[in-house]
Amino acid sequence: MSDAISIKEAVRLVLWGSEKPLRRSEVQQQVEALLGHTVSSSSITSSLRLQSQSDRSPVVNIERGIYAYDLDFHPFGKSRLYHGDSLEILPQLPANSIHAVVTDPPYGLVEYEGKELSKLRGGRGGVWRIPPSYDGCQRSPLPRFTTLTDTELRQMARFFEQLGRELMRVLVPGANVLVASNPLVCHVVTTAMVSAGFEARGQVIRLVQTMRGGDRPKGSEDEFNEVSAMARSQWEPWVMLRKPLDGTTANNLRTWKTGGWRRISDERPFGDVIKSSPTRPEERRIAPHPSLKPQRFMREVVRASLPLGEGIVLDPFAGSGSTLAAAESLGYRAVGIERDDDYFNLACEAMPQLRDLEV
Ligand SMILES: C[S@@+](CC[C@H](N)C(=O)[O-])C[C@H]1O[C@@H](n2cnc3c(N)ncnc32)[C@H](O)[C@@H]1O
Questions:
Q1: Residue of 291, 341, 342 to test ligand 1 pocket, by largest number of atoms within 8 Å of CB
Q2: CA-to-CA distance for 186 and 200, rounded, in angstroms?
């Protein structure tokens, strides 16, 4: 790793990863351990001085000879939840600090904007589709992907390309990226992320009966009683991408701890079709988020995302924190980012309970 990371980046990685502010000598020790060779104390001193004097750097000198990383978070076990916009928080994370991404991003681009969330919270739906109750159960609202115009699809592609560029910097080579999607927009995600430099690596198919599709043509239900406007969706694609490897898979695994998928067991490799169920009512009560993913599925994919079980998993659209809860239940470390105040507070409450659930 010594050639791939500069002293400046190593200083950032060490301060960001530390649970407490560090003395200059502690920074030096940890930088040397990370790089695998000695570094002169003058290099460490000048890197710390230059970074802490720059307005754009998160490295701060809190008192004489003591340094910290200035980025507030909510601590959860070994994990962290940041409160803010991913496109603003990601540039503040150090390069090469993250080993996998497992995320369920917003697609409509507007459905998680304040205006639409207020309509949803006011029970009016807005761009959200409020499905009919089913077997006596009130179903959760769903985003309405079919309403996306060409302009919105282009806007979505730009969003994922921008996200992809930010992720390329914070991820180590060989890192897996797994993005929840749906059959109508997964091509947009794949193409945009590939433009940002990722390799397309297929899809994980979550086999689940969703509430999308199957409806008769809107407003003409009686006239076209025998028609469904769209097939009833029975699977959910999770786009698989990878930051290109540094050399061979084996070399990448040795250097960065990434470059493959963790096997389920000696006999069973991780597979790309996973039987799943809608999120259980018990989980929905703990975390009433409209897009809550089930712990059982999340634990399977989060576990597999770190091939050696080492490193940090990122969810830049954390919602109620289901990815972080899954990571903690597995003994992994995770970093989440959530922009909405209510969902951030919900996640802080829900994550320990989701982590402790039996699945
Ligand atoms: C589809 S939901 C994820 C739900 C999550 N899978 C769960 O199980 O709770 C997407 C989340 O991303 C958040 N979000 C949308 N845009 C964001 C942004 N730019 N930065 C950070 N969070 C964002 C939304 O508020 C929403 O909670």
A1: 291
A2: 11
346, 289 in Cβ contact below 8 A?
A: yes
Nearest to 11 by CA among 97, 100, 75: 97
Residue-range domain boundaries for the chain: 7-69, 74-356
Atom of ligand 1 nearest to the CA of 86: 20
- How far away, in angstroms, is 103 Cα from ligand 1 center? 9
Task: Please tell me the CATH code under which domain 7-69 is placed.
Answer: 1.10.10
Q: How many Å lie between the centroid of ligand 1 and the Cα of residue 160?
A: 14
Could you tell me the pTM of the whole model?
Answer: 0.91
Q: What is the mean pLDDT of each run of 10 residues along the chain (359 residues)?
A: 84 97 98 96 97 94 96 98 98 97 85 73 67 48 66 93 98 98 94 98 94 88 96 94 98 98 98 96 97 97 98 98 98 98 98 98
DSSP string, 23-50: EHHHHHHHHHHHHTS---HHHHHHHHHH
- The CATH number assigned to the domain with range 74-356 reads 3.40.50.150
336 Cα–ligand 1 center, Å: 10
